[in-house]
Protein 1
Amino acid sequence: MLDFMPLILFFTVCLVLMLGYPVALALAGTALMFTGLGMLLQNMGVPVHFESRMLGAMPNRLYGIMTNSTLLAVPLFVLMGVLLEKSKIAETLLDAMALLFGTLRGGLGISVILVGMLMAASTGIVGATVVTMGLLSLPTMLKRGYSPSLATGTICATGTLGQIIPPSIALVLLGDVLSNAYQRAQLAMGVWSPKTVSVGDLFVGALIPGLLLVVAYIVYLTITAWVKPETAPAADRQSLMDELGHRGSVWPLLIKGLIPPVLLIVAVLGSILGGFATPTEASAVGAMGAFLLALVNRRLNLAMLREVVRTTAQVTSMVFLILIGAALFSLVFRAYGGEELVTGLFEAMPGGVVGATLIVMLVIFLLGFILDFIEITFVVVPIVGPVLLMMGLDPIWLGIMIAVNLQTSFLTPPFGFALFYLRGVTPQSVPTSAIYRGVIPFILIQLAMLVALALFPGLATWLPSIL
């Protein structure tokens, strides 16, 4: 029993999180409880493996977190996304796209997917994208005769693109954790000049899978609209213009709504892909660009700025507090010999690296029902990442697989986070069962993407290799 203390520690922290305690406090509190338990058992002469001296590394860990330049991208990307949301730039963008595509069958749904893709690229936060798109587009889609299940499924699936489409906060955090795991794996294998994997590598690796998912969503919606036209009817352009309160040509609204946010995202991603800026520097470009857009559109005032800064500070504080709790948890897990235990379990699994990868992906998928991506990134990935990377997996491929996997688990009934977010802003006339039915085709699309990534790793690794 005492040999499995690391696993008991892991399942205990999952149980505490399920009881609803704050993530950072659950991680740090559980770790401290097991630290005390380990010391107590050793003082009682119980033969338990616990190296308390490892906790001496905690001050260095804290200093490393607070001086990590990569993590500086988190508050800046959050600031960029919140500014775009609060300044109603996303609302203008959706109006423009609805006028452009709304006269086609399924056109309004296609507009939602494209705007959601741009929102995902600008906010990087699943909850923010789902709630924003739900508030902006769901009433219009239902009013235009869209099937409630198709409308809600489209919004949920589009919202989860924030997990995979760069610049995603999930990829920023995952990139930092995987970079540490990759270096530890190489040092454990005797490589004393280890290679690195950066957040920029993950951004580049996520581009093709993310865009393929968007294309697959649009293809599914188009086919559904033609096979069952009553579920996604075309709208009359004049009635759409009257509803949106727009007169005259569509193009001025389209240029005003579409060009600025697209240019902002191109500037952010282009500076990274072109090698002109690191993700941290690009996040500063994005934050300043969002500020200027809000200013030019005359939607920037003191009250909104105060709310934006407060929201950014809250999200950033939450992330860094979780980072500190996760660092303590990781040290205690290793002090109990957790790394050696996990390595032994994986090596004993049938199927070698394939079997180990399947088990890890299944565990992450199931944990996605009860834990947010931040907890999984900071709790699970540091435990399993070094072991899988020592078995020869590509770190970029592993990172993209984890991101798409979590994106899928956020959609899966009955516990998917995206379903809860949308349920909170959906009218009572739309039953929860309609939301569940609506996401099933999109779950199948994302599972197909996972299979495609497993069979063709080049989808994630080819672009980073040539850039």
Protein 2
Amino acid sequence: MTMAEQRALTDGPHPPARPVRASGLPRGFVWLIAAQFLSALADNALLIVTMAWLLALGAPAWWAPLLKFSFTLSYVLLAPFVGALADRVCKRRLMVAMNALKLLGALALLAGLHPLAAFALVGLGASAYAPAKYGLLTESTAPAALVAANGWVESAVVLSVLLGVVLGGALVAPAWLQSSWVQAVVAGEWLAGLGTCLPSVSLSAMPTDSLSTLRTLQVSLGCVVAVYVLAAFCHWGIRPSGATYARRGGASPRRLWIDFRAANRQLWQDRSGGLSLAVTSVFWGLSALMQFAVLLWATGVLALGLDQAAYLQGTVAGGVVVGAVWVATRLRLRHALRVLALGLPMGALLVLGPLMIADWRWALPVLLALGALGGVMVVPMNALLQHRGHRLLSAGQSIAVQGFNENLGVLIALALYAGLIALQVPVQAVMVLTGLSLAGFVGLMMSRRRRGAVAAS
């Protein structure tokens, strides 16, 4: 055991006040899963509905990834502070407050706020929600059950993505928008007050069809708001862990930043922590890029509608769920690094798929396999990262460091993607470059790991 690990054992959080089950999973775990599932479900459905909103307004294609960019920005800018916040307040109460902030962002969009501003508000809530959720999980779960608990949580997260894009696709499908129920709501003006969502758009000058679509999409946004409300009720079943921490670095923003920077450096310098942090940061960055690339590929190359493209994108998330559930029951934490090599076949699928597939039926098994490989790869790496972070840092601080690096990867990937699409680079070429980047990165990490093992011996 290293000196850092010894200090972590003596300086870590106080033992949880509430007991855990014999399985090692915390009491109230089901409510934690349900609350974060519904909150994330609404996030993903909101993204698809807002993309349809932008299409109705005639916004260019490269605006779509900027929605995710504005959502993710708070994760990076506020990372030095949300970890300390999660460690100093009751994590359940913080999750309730942040879900309410996300609900406020959805309501603001419904009232006509600019989509990027509304998504920035939703992302602000999500940025503090994440360290509270994962910090509570790490505090309350026995180390032997951490991979299994992460498997359930990550499966719920990815399932929320899967069902979120399916729900979003259903809410923008012509069959829904033209249904008698939606038309009755629009005719009754129950959701009045549509505002201007882009500075250059005048609603009075819009074509009648586009304005009608915006009116019906207001009903879809109202359905997303209802999911956030349902999530709010589930939060009250979560059990606080009772863990407390010594205050780290003082309360001033400068001291918090200094403390966060030191924590970030400490986790990167840890052999296992740094490797897993690099892998998860690249993985989630490229995953965010592929989320939009698959949608554009499906609509532009496979000639699908946005609702059908959302269902196809959900296939990837479904594969991740399958892979995550499978690996959660078969792999121990000490063997987590064995899954690193799976990035090589993932890269190969990303390179060959767009070049060889021109029909959505062939795309389904490829995207399913891609998601399954990703699920098997990311769950053990995420569990290893949380384990090392909790040993070296506090639970909230380690999750904040993780979120900062992973979401910085997302911002970089989305900025690159938006730039390439604005330059009219074909989406197939973007996907091929993504596959080559993933395979090259994994090969580099595997080579460094082998050299480190040789040097240690």
